[in-house]
Amino acid sequence: MHSPFAPLDGRPVSPRIRRVGSFAELLATPFANGVNALCWERTLPGDYAEVVGLLGHGDGEAITELDEERLLALPVGPAGRVAVDCMLADLRRLREHDLDPALNCIHGYPRDEEAGVVATDVFSYHADRAPVAAATWLCTYFGPPSEGLPNEDACRRIDLPETRAALLREFGGADDAGFATYLSEACYDLHYAPAEGARPYGFGVGSLWRIAVEHPDCPVPPCVHRAPATAPGQRRLLLIG
Length: 241
Known about the structure:
The protein is an alpha+beta fold. It is 24% helix and 20% strand. It is built from six helices and twelve strands. The chain has a seven-stranded mixed beta sheet. Strands 9-6-11 form a three-stranded antiparallel beta sheet, with no helix packed on it. Helix 1 links the parallel strand 1 and strand 2. The two termini are 23 Å apart.
């Protein structure tokens, strides 16, 4: 699953994905004709496992944000230094274009404290939303990569009759504009269930992605994705912007 576009069931991947050949092309290619996930496929050099090992266990924090100073201070060997340089180069690329990426060492994601009608943590298939034109940037350098789900294989959980009925009971009102506002404010409308026979795909390790976000002017549906399931103690290095 470390190669991008690898469907988890071995069948052909989604036509919603498009490969590009450079960062400049990744930045400039518009979302159009239903394509909502752009990938600059890369095999990066360097020893990212060494970097993760030197970062420790996060002092009890689920997510440790890494800055340039901390990365450059790590006592890495030559291959680890190459890995650090590759990650810093990506951060600089994005910041040069007025983006605000974060590089995180993830020890574990927070889960919903209570089992609600609709799970809203990052392990649930979801789309991102913004009030203005935007996109989400993702790259997994180490650990299990993110997963995508073609829109044709996804159904909004709020559109499932039993789920909608349960949410209406929770809301305590009619299925009207107020209910729609309630769903939006709780982000319930951004979470999806896989359809029967769905074909999720892996984002791969090392590849840089730009995926569509739901916003008023987006010409395509938002890209549905999620964080991968991880084993206890399993860590990830993830760029997100």
